[in-house]
Amino acid sequence: MLRNAKLRSKLIVGFIAVASISVIIGFMSVLNIRRMADADQALYQNDTAPPPAITHLVVDFQKLRVASRDLLAAKTTLDKEKFQNEITELVHDLDRSVDAYAQRQLSPEDRKIFDEFLEARKEYAGWWRMR
Predict the structure, then answer these.
(1) 3 state DSSP class of 94
(2) Residues 6 or more apart from 83 whose CB is under 8 A from it?
(3) Separation CA 10–CA 18 (nearest Å)
(4) What separation in angstroms does the CA of 45 have from each of 49, 84, 96?
């Protein structure tokens, strides 16, 4: 069929074939770019965003440790009240940080570790209230 066709027809068919291949490649590229953007967002949420939140938790724990030390070393009632208020404020900040971190999508391993942390924190809070 193509042997008997004019050169003009052959060129048009060839151009349409190359153009259709380009359209298919472009369509597949757009689909894959969207999949890559979704994977990139998941990567950011799971691997890049959590470390600063965890660092904030660690800093809060350190501040609590220091404030507790200062409370135990305080000599006057005014100093004791000051450090007690500081500890209360840090505990509320820690609660907000933990609640914000709990809203994240975590991998099953990270979720298990976080749940263990929450259980240990509940046990500690119960122990602390008993004192």
Answers:
(1) helix
(2) 67, 68, 70, 71, 74
(3) 12
(4) 5, 36, 19
Domain boundary among 27, 48, 69: 48
Contact by Cβ (8 Å): 67, 26:
no
Tokens 């500890």 — which residue?
87
Non-local CB neighbours of 89 within 8 Å, separated by 6+ positions: none
Residue ending a domain, choose from 48, 65, 86: 48
- Looking at the fold, whether 72 and 126 belong to one and the same domain comes out as yes
CB 114 within 8 A of CB 102: yes
Domain count, the chain: 2
Enclosing domain of residue 37: 1-48
The string of pLDDT tens digits covering residues 86-97 is 988 988 888 888
Do 44 and 86 fall within a single domain? no
CB atoms within 10 A of CB 6: 8
pTM of the predicted structure, to 2 decimals: 0.56
With a cut of 70, say whether residue 38 has pLDDT above it. yes
